[in-house]
Each structure stands twice: as C-alpha cells, then as structure tokens.
Amino acid sequence: MNKISKKLKITLFGGIALFLLSFGVSHGALPGLTPFYLSDNGTNWITSVSTYELGSSTNRIAKIWATAIDTTTISIGGATPFTTGSVIFAGASGVLSQDNANLFWDDTNNRLGIGTTSPIYRLDVIGTFHSSGYAFIDGSTIIGGGGIAGMYPSNNSTTLVVANGDLSTKISIVGSSASPANNIIFTNASVESMRIDSSGYVGIQQSSPTARLHLGAGSATASTAPLKFTSGTNLATPETGAVEYDGTNLFFTRTGTTRETVSTGLRGSDTLDFPNTNAGTSSDLTITVTGASDGDVCSLGVPNGSTVENGSFTCWVSASNTVTVRYSNNDLTTSYDPASGTFKVTVEK
C-alpha cells in the first residue's frame, strides 16, 4: 500500500471530485482498479466505498474542494438530499437541513421566498413579519426604528402613497418640497374625497378649502346633503359653541349655559292684487305655504310699492298649508286700492 501524506491534489478517476486534503492518502498500484483509501492521521485507513467519520475532534479536515456536487444525491449528517431552491441551514443538533415551504430561492429569477415556493418579488414574504430597526425602500423610505412606528420619506420632495392595487383608492402624503406641499389627500374610487392642506384646513369634496372645515356642494340626489345631524340627547349642561339636535329642534349655545332654539321656518311668496277697499274695512288674499299649520308664527314681507297711507298688512295661518294676508284700510273716510306686488311670508316651526 502506497501512502502520500499532507496536502496533495488527488484526482478520483471513478468520480468527478477534486480534493486538496490535509491528511494522508493511500491508493493501490492503479487508480480505479483497487479501492481508494483515506486516513485522518496516517494510521486509521478507510476505503472510498465505505461509510466512516472522516476526521475526528482533534484531527480535522482543513479544506475540501469540488468541481461539482450533486445535491440531489448527497446526504450530509443524515440530511435529506437537497432539492431545487433549497436554502441550507443548520437544523437540530447542527445537522444541515432544508425547508423549501418556508425558505426558498428562485435562482432563475433571483427571488427569495419566505413562506412560499413561488416568490414573485425579489423578497416575497407570506405571513406577518416584524422589524425593530430601519428598513429602506428605494433609498428614501424608512419603516420603524427610533421609536417611530410607521412609514415616512426621508426626501422632502417625495410623496408617500398608501393605496390599493390599481391606485384608485389611496392616501397621498405630499412632501414639503413637492406640490401641493404638506397636503394629505384622500382619494376614493379615483375621486378626491377629502384633503388636509398645509394650513390645517379640511376640505371634504373640496380641493381648495378656505375654512377650518369646508364642505363641498350637495346635489339633488338622495343622501348627498353637505351636512346632516343625527337626532340625539341634548347635553345635561349646555356648553358654549355647542350645536345640538334632539330630533325636533336645532339648538345653539352662543355663550354660557343658555341653550337657544335655532329658528326654522317655511317660506312662500305670491303676487297679490288687493281690490279697492272701503274705508274702515279689510280685504283678504291667500298664499300657499306647504307644511304650515294652524297656530304657527307668521311673518310678512310687504313690497314698498303696495304700501298705503293709513293702511296695514297682517298674516296668519288660516288652514293647513295656507297663509292668509289681510289688508286693513284704517282710514275712516276714504277707500284705497293697494298696488299689485309680490308678498313674501315666513312661517316659523
């Protein structure tokens, strides 16, 4: 038996591996015709076709080089032969292991999958992940870290967008060096629904708010009113500036604890042409006001051209939906005929 010790390049003619070994070597007279032998210390010789521990805790292999290793057939430390996409790691007791379902490398597309064997991004994570430090996206966006939970651009000309897949619904946070600077814009179904501008003004369906709260216009379509109150219970103690609605009346407290009822009313108008009215008598005409009820308070607007000396006009709700306007001729000797004009009435509810 021939022995060669210490760091020789040895070619196995029966295989594809090339080794540079830091241990003794022995071979038969003709390579490939007799078994190939290895020894970890020049004393304990083993054949290449047997199963042994190569090396020991005190005599270790320094280097192993190979031109190619078929990982589908190799088994190291009892590990299952590796499959395509395996990311090898030390498992229980330090044994080399693989878990493709949870850790997979797509070498064709250069993608790493965690929790998936079909990653579609450079890093594709299926499931929840946690970061306690900083994560940079495109070199400008930072997530978490420094006691900050969230996402923010480090470049002031950047607009941060959180959106659905087709960007039709999104929140856009505009940087201080972008336009419109420092605006927060909410878009729903590709239509802007709300924004907060750099002055803190809030516009709801109003892209250029000019007040702390600026509401967009309503329309004739149902459920499109600019503002609607839901009936509820009034405050036990009125508060300055509070607006309340109990389902019947609308209240406003201007100052202190005095709650005042906001006057609401019905309005109507019509052209009235009173007849010539004898001295000391009166004439009546009516105006339709839908919703008016007997006992409601009535206010009357008289056109200047219809006023008459020594005469007066009054109104009252004479029947449901009907307001009567009366001209009284207070002159005791002369009859008068008021000029035709547009009279306006308001009925308080």
Radius of gyration: 46 Å
Any idea what the CATH architecture of the domain at 265-348 is? Sandwich
Helix/strand structural class: mainly beta
Distance between the termini: 120 Å
In percent, how much strand structure appears in the residues?
25-35%
The name CATH uses for the topology of the domain at 265-348 is Immunoglobulin-like
The percent of residues in helical segments reads: under 10%
Q: Report the total helices.
A: 0
Give a quick account of the main beta sheet: strands, pairing sense, barrel closure: 6 strands, mixed
Q: How would you spell out the order of helices and strands?
A: EEEEEEEEEEEEEEEEEEEEEEEEEEEEE
Give the overall silhouette: rod-shaped
Query: Mean pLDDT, nearest integer?
Result: 82
- The low-confidence parts are 1-36
* Count of β-strands: 29
The CATH first-level class of the domain at 265-348 comes to Mainly Beta
Q: Can you walk through the features of this model?
A:
The protein has no helices and 29 strands. The model is unreliable at 1-36 (pLDDT under 50). The strands form 9 sheets. The protein has a 6-stranded mixed β-sheet with strand order 15-16-17-18-19-20, with no helix packed on it. The protein is mostly beta strands and 349 residues long.
What are its keywords?
349 residues; Immunoglobulin-like; six-stranded mixed beta sheet; disordered N terminus
List the helices and strands and how they pair.
Layout: E1 2-4, E2 9-11, E3 18-20, E4 25-27, E5 37-39, E6 45-47, E7 89-90, E8 96-97, E9 104-106, E10 111-114, E11 123-125, E12 135-137, E13 141-143, E14 151-153, E15 159-163, E16 170-174, E17 184-188, E18 191-196, E19 202-204, E20 213-215, E21 243-245, E22 250-252, E23 260-261, E24 265-272, E25 282-288, E26 297-301, E27 311-319, E28 322-329, E29 341-348
Parallel strand pairs: 10-11, 19-20
Antiparallel strand pairs: 1-4, 2-3, 4-5, 5-6, 7-8, 9-10, 12-13, 13-14, 15-16, 16-17, 17-18, 18-19, 21-22, 22-23, 24-29, 25-28, 26-29, 27-28
